[in-house]
Design brief:
The chain is mainly β and 295 residues long. It is 0% helix and 53% strand. The chain is built from no helices and 26 strands. The strands form 7 sheets. Strands 4, 6, 7, 9, 10 and 11 form a 6-stranded mixed beta sheet that branches. Strands 13, 15, 16, 18, 19 and 20 form a 6-stranded mixed beta sheet that branches. Strands 3-5-8 form a 3-stranded antiparallel beta sheet, with no helix packed on it. It is rod-shaped and about 155 Å long. It starts with a strand and ends in a 7-residue tail after the last strand. The mean pLDDT is 91.
Length: 295
């Protein structure tokens, strides 16, 4: 149909005499354009209790769009010649698929038509946040583990140390261990926050996990070996040994001497029977007897 204004001229005819006259006043009929009704619309997936979104693609400037669930208005937006997002309050949405009808109204003329397409906002249950979680105790530089008890199948779990993502895993329906690289852990207590996500929902678990990292013995201590004649015992001296640290000396794979650090220089005696003529390379391993961390 034609859109715009038309001037209407009226003619009066006497049917008896056939006399004809034009009326002195004209009339104008204005036809306003209807909104376009073929816009593509879509809805998102959201978490129960959270707001949803309906998107009207290629919305028209000057057209107001109103979203309805049944006969209830649940959101409005003004067209912008681009994609228009209309927020739907979570209180108006129910679990499952929510069918959204949209009506487009010309703001100037009030001409209104329903869009031919509907949108669907899917509402899903959030992940369970009460899962029991625990971390382990490791030595410095070793990987740690966080275990999520009774993880939910298909739920993505992310581990954070502060703002840093340090591990991820997908729930299996049973206990889920997630590895945390030792490079992300600090000596001492590492508190891990955990988020759980499914389609449309991300929640923080109510429990935190703790990974305890024990320091390794100091490896930068200077070590001196002795020079001696054949058939005599040798010595290995560990300068400024750490108190309480067990030191073991190896030649090849053979343990040849042990001692416990006392904060002073520690002298380990290597029996002559364990020595060969020439240079004997001695490997010293330091172990914390309390934590079993060694270096």
């Amino acid at each position: 149909s034609w859109v715009g204004s038309s001037t209407i001229t009226l003619t009066a005819t006497n049917t008896t005499t056939s006399c004809v006259s034009n009326l002195s006043d004209n009339s104008t009929i204005t036809v306003n354009a209807n909104p376009l009704t073929d816009r593509v619309v879509s809805g998102n997936t959201t978490c129960l209790g959270q707001d949803g979104t309906v998107t009207v693609e290629l919305s028209e400037t000057g057209i107001n769009y109103e979203a309805f669930i049944g006969a209830t208005s649940v959101g409005t937006g003004a067209g912008n010649d681009g994609d228009l997002d209309i927020s739907i309050n979570g209180g108006d949405l129910v679990l499952g698929n929510n069918i959204i009808d949209l009506v487009a109204t010309n703001a100037a003329s009030s001409c209104a038509l329903p869009l031919t397409n509907q949108a669907t906002v899917e509402v899903v249950n959030p992940p369970l946040i009460d899962r029991a979680v625990n971390g382990n105790t490791v030595c410095q530089n070793a990987d740690g583990t966080v275990t999520i008890s009774a993880s939910e199948t298909g739920v993505t779990y992310e581990l954070y140390l502060g703002a840093t993502l340090v591990g991820t895993g997908i729930g299996t329906g049973s206990d889920l261990p997630i590895t945390v690289s030792g490079s992300n852990l600090n000596v001492g207590v590492n508190t891990i926050d955990i988020t759980a996500s499914n389609t449309g929902c991300t929640e923080s678990l109510s429990n935190q996990a703790t990974i305890n990292v024990n320091a390794n013995p100091i490896v930068s201590l200077s070590i001196n070996g002795s020079e001696l004649c054949d058939l005599l015992n040798g010595t290995v001296t560990i300068n400024s040994s750490e108190p309480g640290i067990d030191y073991e000396a190896f030649i090849g794979g053979t343990l040849v001497a042990t001692g416990v650090g006392d904060g002073a220089d520690l002298v380990l005696t290597v029996l002559a029977s364990d020595l060969n003529i020439g240079t004997n390379d001695v490997l010293v391993v330091a172990t914390n007897s309390t934590t079993s961390c060694s270096a």
